[in-house]
Amino acid sequence: MMVVEDRSPFRFWVLVLSVVGFLGALKNNSILLWMYLIILFLILLGILVFTVLAFIITNNATGHDVAGLRFKEYRLQDYNKWFRNELNNTHNWKRLRSCLVKSDDCNNLSKRYKTLKQYKSAKLTPIEAGCCRPPSQCGYPAVNASYYDLSFHPVSPIKDCKLYRNSKATKCYNCDSCKAAVAEYMKTEWRVVAIFNVVLFVVLFVIYFVGCCARRNAESSRSKF
After folding, report:
1. What are the pLDDT digits (tens) for 173-205?
2. pTM score of the predicted model
3. Beta carbons within 10 angstroms of residue 87's beta carbon
4. Which of 18, 25, 78, 178 is deepest in the core (most CB within 10 A)?
5. Residue among 146, 136, 116, 18 at smallest CA distance from 73
6. pLDDT, the chain, mean
7. Rounded to whole angstroms, how far apart are CA atoms 33 and 40?
8. What's the rounded Cα separation, in Å, for the pair 189 and 183?
9. Is 191 exposed, middle or buried (0-12, 13-18, 19+ CB in 10 A)?
10. Strand-pair partners of 72
């Protein structure tokens, strides 16, 4: 479940920034170095703001253990309000749901777990646990890895119990448990990006410091003449 982004414009502007900094240092041109430092400062500020927000947004929410199962279930209300708003947005969820239906997360369960015993002892991913099966609260007995007996009256009144269907095109893709699973996936991905940004921030800060030194040297050289 990945979104491919075109990063060509970003790479182009990084190249332009690098050329400006290189020429400024080579020619001892304080104007080019000032331009370089201002743009680099704005990039550092943007990285810092995004990283702090990423850690704040992904700081809460954790999975809930279920007796007899080796995986956790996730609840949408546990996540940050921003996550909830984005996932409850009809347009956003329609696109995400389409990706989930086309993916093999749910379709492969019956191939991977041939028997009910194997399925019940499996360690499912958040997407598999939240989108491919009804929440355990519903009390529907599993017939196999891709089919539940819905003739039983659900134990819990939560709406996910009524939304789940055994159809490959439906499953629990409209459930809050599925949205929570996607939120958990996004949380994990954002944490990885945030950690990478911390490293990137340190590297760019060192470059920024070197640029400041180059600017001072350039201004000192001009003052001598």
Report:
1. 999 999 999 999 988 888 888 899 899 889 888
2. 0.78
3. 19
4. 178
5. 136
6. 85
7. 10
8. 10
9. middle
10. 65
